[in-house]
Amino acid sequence: MREEIFAVKKPLFVSSNNFLARLKRGLRVKKAGFSGTLDPFACGNLVVATGNKTRLFEYLRLEPKTYIATLWLGAKSDTLDIEGVYEIDETTAKDLTAVQKAVEALTEVKSITPPKYCAKWVNGVRSYELARKNIDFELSKTQIEVFYSKLLAYSHPFVTFEVSVSKGTYIRSLGEMVARSLGENGALSYLCRASEGVFDYKKNSSFDIFSALRATENRYKKDKTDIIVGKKLIATDFEIFDDGVYYVKTGNDNFSIIEIKDEKVSYKLNNIEF
Q: What is the total count of domains within the chain?
């Protein structure tokens, strides 16, 4: 199989790793990876790469990340999602305007505390493992950006909203914020990642790889064979020699990624097929 990068939909209640294992068997590839783990209860966009294309993950534009979530008002959950619900409170219907304001107010959030049931490391141990053992610990706040948040539907006690966020944002934590602003407990009963940057499983799988790179196109003014064979390069031999990360097409459907810093050129990835 040709080495590829593509977006697929992870189904509900399957871990990202187990789903990847299924894909590898189906595609008959030995090497594959994904960016951005989805919780088992969540479904949606998973960016997958095979072979040496996995090396490109570091340079892909995977923001903003867009999600569609349904919040269950009154649900108490250790995990802030449907898998950890242990009690359900009776709640009264809320004013639609109040619900809309609570959802839209998420754009003002600049930091969140990750849920304890997450994959953060705490002294060499995953935080969800500590939480399962009822070991007391605290997680540091994470800086985030919410690009937009809008209410899609409200049928009490369920609030469905769409939110576009930066990497590292826990939608379960945002759902909890909405519930608290409405004076209730709450947990997500549904979560779907709709897209990551230009990657959207609902659209045609073919796309321009260069539009997905966090790098600017540059051109080498000398023989491109210098790059192909990995020779030492000089910054002024490029059309753009300001500090930055660049991709350079080297012909024969290949490209390389370089970095120019303090007038020095370093290879990041070389001879990648597109």
A: 3
- Concerning whether 78 is annotated as a catalytic residue, the answer is no
Mean pLDDT of 120-147: 90
Q: Which of 39, 95, 136, 242 is catalytic?
A: 39
Does the pLDDT at position 144 exceed 80?
Answer: yes
What's this model's pTM, rounded to 2 decimal places?
0.91
Tell me, yes or no, whether 107 and 155 share the same domain. Answer: yes
Co-location of 120 and 144 in the same domain: yes
DSSP one-letter string for the chain = ----EEEEEEPTT--HHHHHHHHHHHHT-S-EEEESPPPTT-EEEEEEEEGGGGGGGGGB---SEEEEEEEEETEEESSSBGGGEEEE---PPPPHHHHHHHHHGGGG--EEPPPSSS--EETTEEHHHHHHTT-------EE--EEEEEEEEEETTEEEEEEEE-TT--HHHHHHHHHHHTTS-EEEEEEEEEEETTB-TTS-S---GGGGBSSEE--BSS-THHHHTT---BGGGBS--SSEEEEEEEETTEEEEEEEETTEEEEEEEEEE-
Range of the domain at 88: 65-194
The reply to whether 172 and 98 lie within a common domain is yes
Which of 194, 225, 258 terminates a domain? The answer is 194
Write the pLDDT tens digit of every residue in 23-55: 999 999 999 999 888 988 999 999 999 998 999
Do 144 and 161 sit in the same domain of this protein? yes
